[in-house]
Design goal:
Strand order of the largest sheet: 1-2
Helix content: 25-40%
Radius of gyration: 13 Å
Length: 50
């Protein structure tokens, strides 16, 4: 699945977007989960600041 998303981002319009993945600790189980989102290049720092 990730390969499809990354491949589609590399074509024309997708040059302004990046797939970002961050590790977040779950409050319920105290285990780590991964938060994956397609983010516009202008908002990457905001995504990782949360």
């Amino acid at each position: 699945m990730a390969k499809k998303v990354v491949a589609s981002l590399q074509r024309g319009v997708g040059k302004n977007f990046t797939k970002c993945i961050k590790m977040v600790k779950s409050p319920k189980t105290d285990s780590y989960i991964f938060d994956e989102q397609i983010v516009h290049n202008d908002h990457i720092k905001d995504f990782f600041a949360d």
